[in-house]
Amino acid sequence: MSVRSTVLEQFKLVAKEQDKTLAPLTDDLVLLESGLDSLCFAIIVARLEDALGVDPFSATAEANFPVTLGDFIQFYEDAAN
Amino acid sequence: MPQIDWSSLWNSLSAADRLARRALWGVDGSVALDDLAGGSSLGGRLEELRGRCVFLATRSQLAAALALIELDGVARRIVLCPPDLAAEHVPYVIATAGVDALVSDRAAPDPGESTPGPVVACSLKLAPGAPDRQARLRTEWILMTSGTTGAPKMVVHTLASLAGAMMARGTPVGPALWSTYYDIRRYGGLQILLRATLGGGSLVLSSAGEAMSDFLERAGARGVTHILGTPTHWRSALMSPAAHALKPQYVRLSGEIADQSILDHLRSFYPQAKIVHAFASTEAGVGFEVGDGRAGFPASLVGQTGANVDMKVVDGSLRIRSSRTAARYLGEQSEVLVDAGGYVDTGDMVELRGDRYFFVGRRGGIINVGGLKIHPEEVEAVINTHPGVRVSLVRARKNPITGALVVADVVLNSPPDETKGGAQALQREILEHCRASLPRHKVPAVVNFVVSLAMAASGKIARRNA
Question: Which of B395, B398, B401, B407 to mutate to probe the A interface, most A CBs <10 Å?
Fold first, then answer.
């Protein structure tokens, strides 16, 4: 499974588990407007670390955290390569 | 309850006509109590230890029990060395307690155990002769607390404070045959040694190296009637085919939170037994016991006046005042054991739900998820009620978003059913089960299936930060 599809799958799964209404998952979706809150993102980051073996949020000293869903996927793709 | 002669353990247990047909059984041998009237485990050297502070370091629990019976009322102080005391802490303990004698069953004492004064060998082979056991001192018993890191805390008790709970109602008496998974050099196990010896019964001792199933077979073969352990001990025992060897009348749990799941399992496994869970700690002594088969304890126990034990809840933690609490800690820099009102702060956090208090965990064991605080034990209690779960450990996992998340390591009763979706489906099911009764931040983000959880020497689940 690609990084992209793994990320999208976790967004959908966590939204369902946490009973959140998820906005359509387009690349320009602003994460804070996705319908998910910080606990949801925390869970997604933990599960992606298990699935992909990387946690770019902890690994990077980079100040630019992802803003959109497209950034987020790119963030993981860069870390996974 | 027979009258307890508080002058010494020996004076009480040897009161007229009470010695016959009573014994202590260890993995390494046995001793009939009436043989102690005319013999000594200390090779006839008891007199050399009179008035001294004795470091009691034996490999054998039975040897330790015999030495305790002989030394109470004779030694000024007995320092009970638990089997897992790290060698690096021994010099500190010896210096802080003012040790000036050593009792050991080792051929050669460890180099770290060099003490001033006599070194007396302790043996299961009693040396003939009637030692002078006249009690001239109120011996201090020094116990070490479990579950702490760094140097152990040394807690000062006397026979009276240790055995105080036995004066309370409901303690089984008579020719009971007691046993415990605990080591008798820890508070929980020592309670059982005293109940057996002072209460007119006998005792089957466990041994650190012995497999659970071997111990259960041995206890069952002797016909043990009364048995105590932590919930972790009991979960482990119920996993053993030898659990059927036991036919207890009385099952007691202490040392950890007894959740509804383990109480229910014990009730169905030993339907003939009275199942009691007790709250006790090395510092606070035995607080109370609950025999109604339900987790937690009645709120009416808190704030009662005129009871043997006064309890109150301050900032969520249980505080206890009674004649069973320890006197103090040893050591110059040690903290205050009792507050100005005479209460011991147990550090055990409770929560009132309806007319009952429930233990939710230890202060300091808290997981902080984005500022929301979670007691791991509270989450474990919910996970453990899932029918597929044997036991669980909830811990913090570092997280860049919320600081930490809750994750659970779960031991299953049997491997996940592949025809029902396997591990993944079962993980989801356990999470659903948690969501049904916990706020969302308390639900584990990740459930890992593990083969077993580590048990600390104290018989409790090993918690990294405990």
Answer: B401
Name the closest residue on chain A to residue B444, using Cα atoms. A43
Nearest by CB to residue B400, choosing from A39, A50, A58, is: A58
* Residues of chain A that touch chain B, judged by Cβ-Cβ distance less than 8 Å: 17-18, 38-39, 41-43, 45-47, 50, 55, 57-58
pTM: 0.79
Nearest CA to B155 among B309, B398, B336? B336
The rounded distance, in Å, linking the Cα atoms of A26 and B229 is 57
A17, A46, A57 ranked by CB distance to B405: nearest? A46
B445 and A46: CB-CB below 8 Å?
A: yes
d(CA B234, CA B444): 25
> Contact, B294 vs B356, CB < 8 A?
yes
| B407/A46 Cβ within 8 A | yes
What is chain A's pLDDT, residue by residue, as a tens digit (81 residues)? 899 999 999 999 999 999 999 999 999 999 888 999 889 999 999 999 999 999 888 776 555 678 899 999 999 999 887
What does the DSSP 8-state code read for residue A21?
P
In Å, how far is A41's CA from the nearest CA of chain B? 7
Question: Which residue in A25, A23, A40 sits closest to A73, CA to CA?
Answer: A25
